[in-house]
Write a structure and sequence with these properties.
- Two copies of one chain form a homodimer.
- Chain A is α+β, with helices and mostly antiparallel strands.
- Chain A has a single domain, classed as Winged helix-like DNA-binding domain superfamily/Winged helix DNA-binding domain (Arc Repressor Mutant, subunit A), CATH 1.10.10.10.
- Chain A is about 70% helix and about 15% strand.
- In chain A, strands 1-3-2 form a three-stranded antiparallel beta sheet.
- In chain A, a hairpin with a 2-residue loop joins strand 2 and strand 3.
- The longest helix of chain A has 30 residues.
- Chain A starts with a helix and ends with a helix.
- The mean pLDDT of chain A is about 95.
- Chains A and B meet through helix 1, helix 2 and helix 5 of A and helix 1, helix 2 and helix 5 of B.
- Chain A binds a DNA duplex through helix 4.
Chain lengths: ~100, ~100
Amino acid sequence: MTDTLVDVCAALGDSTRWSILTALGEGDASASSLATRLPVSRQAIAKHLAVLERVGLVEPVRVGRELRYRVLGSELSATARRLDAVGAAWERRLAAIKEIAEDM
Amino acid sequence: MTDTLVDVCAALGDSTRWSILTALGEGDASASSLATRLPVSRQAIAKHLAVLERVGLVEPVRVGRELRYRVLGSELSATARRLDAVGAAWERRLAAIKEIAEDM
DNA sequence: GCGATATGCAACCGTGTGATTGCAGTCGAG
DNA sequence: CTCGACTGCAATCACACGGTTGCATATCGC
């Protein structure tokens, strides 16, 4: 059910991946160019990009021999909405409990 | 700043923890009572609850000798809003790029 | 008080994963 | 055509983490 939701959250639960995402937030970039700015190897970044691509947070774009990546804010916003829906449901339950308590 | 954000996402990036959260969504429960419904040991659940409590997704409630946990939808919605803000920023950048491209 | 139930703590284990290095292949620029 | 740069794949390593078992401790009910 919430199968991909946990995957997206797991992908977002890594600080190195957030470094990559925020770097991509300022402009598309390839794994190699990211490796010059970030304190990790190119291959590590490539693996992270593969993870981010599999959950749809990032999209590959060929530019000549380079393979740049573009961050997809729409996917992030979509997961945000899904999380908010769940949180809202839980809050409704709490509010109902509280109302019952006040009736006594 | 986004320090706790990654922690919350990491906490949400585990299917067992989602099982616990959804179970708690139907009513407060202790680690022991959860262990009867879920296919994991009580101690494993206790560890997960500790993780969830540290990021504020869950709150302990003493009931006699029991220690029940209550799910906090407000925290989840708060993180959802933070994620949406980031996603919206990324989308704005893409929209700006697209506009520039169309001007040429 | 006594037994049953609930929690807490500690040690341990297997595996998943973040990260590295090395090498081979590919493709654009000069 | 050749050189340099970018990508892809494989092997390896260390550590964190999910999970378990065992035992000690507290506390409610009878």
